[in-house]
Request: fold
Amino acid sequence: MAEVHLHQPKTMKYPMVDLKGQYEKIKTEIDAAVLDVIESTKYINGPEVSAFADHLSEYLGGPFVVPCANGTDALQIALMALDCQPGDEIIVPVHTYVATAEVIALLNLVPVFVEVDQTTFNIDVDQIEDLITEKTKAIVPVHLYGQVADMEPLMKIALEHGIYVLEDTAQAIGAEYTCKDGRKLKAGTIGTIGTTSFFPSKNLGCYGDGGAMFTGDEKIAKRLKMMANHGQGKKYHHDEIGCNSRLDTIQAAILDIKLGHLDEYNSVRQLAAERYNKLLADVSEVTTPFVLDRSTHVYHQYTLQLAEEIDRDQVKDDLAEAGIPSMIYYPIPLHLQKAYRREGFGEGSFPVTEQLSRTVLSLPIHTELEESVQIDIVNELKKAIAKQK
Reply:
C-alpha cells in the first residue's frame, strides 16, 4: 500500500485568544471559587448563580438579569418572552453570526435582513424603517466586534412603530453608549431586552457555555425566568411552554470572579487596538476599525478591511505560513447561506455585507497580547500585502 502523506497544519507562533495566560493570572481566585462549589455540591442553581446575576446587574446599571445556558438560548428565550408568533417578522442585520437569525427561524418567525454600515459593521439604522410592516415584531441590533450600534435613532423608530428591540450584546459586554442628553448606557441595557454569551473567548467568558438576558421591565424579567425554567413560575406549575436553560453554578462562580476584571480586560484590549492602529497607519491597503463617536469599543475582535484589489484569502494563507493566526468573520453572508436563501435575494442584494465578506480580516486580540507580538504580526501582514503589489 502506498504511503500517504497527510498535510500537517502550520503551527501558530501565537494564539488568537490566550485563555491560558489569562487564567494563570487569576488562578488562585478561580480555583478557590470552583473548589467552593464542588465542596458545597450545589452544582445547579447554587447561591453563586444569583450572586453573579446581582453583581452583573449592578455592573450594567441595575437591570434585571436572568442567567441561562448560552447566548443562543438567551436570544431564543427573549423572543419567546416577547410573545412572538409564527409569521411575525424580526429585522436583523445580514452581517452577523448565524445564531442571531437561527433562533428567529427556529421559532417559525421570519428573519428580515437589513444591510450594515460600511464603517461600523453594525446595523444601518437608515434602512430599517423601509422594512417595517404590520407583521414586524422586533428589531435585533447586533453590537458587532465590540461597539454599540447607533441605538438612539433606532429606539426612536421602534417607539414610533410600537415594536420591540432585542440587543445582541454577545460581542460588546462592557461597551458604553452616550445618548444626546449625556446619559451613558451599557450595551444591552438600552432596548427592551439585552442578551449576551459567556462563550470562553468572549470579553467576559466562562470555562464552558453560559449566557444571560437583561431587561429593565420587571414583568418581562419574570417571564424570561419562567421561560428558561420549563415555563414554570412555581414548581410543577407550568403556565407556558418553556425550555430548560440554566447557567450552572461552577460557571457562575468563575464569571463572578472575571466580572471584577472586565473593565481591566476591556481597557487592555483598547490599548492593544490603539497599538495596531498606529502600526498600520502607513498601510494604505488597510482600513483600521472605525469607532462611532457615541460608543466605546471593547474590541472583542480587531477587524480590519483590506482593499478590494488585495486577495484577502491569500493574505490569510500567507500569515498562516508565517505562523500568524487570523480569522474571517463572516465569509458567507446570511442571505447567501443555503438555509436562509429567499426568493428575490441573491448576490448583489446586500452589497456592503458582500464586500465585507470579501475584505474583512481579524487579527489576534486578547488580554495578554504584548506589543512585541503585535509588531511581529503587523510586519508579517505588511509582507503578505506587499507580495501582491
User: Anything to note?
Assistant: The domain at 262-386 is CATH 3.90.1150.10 (Aspartate Aminotransferase, domain 1). Residues 262-279 form the longest helix (18 residues). The chain has two domains: 20-259, 262-386.
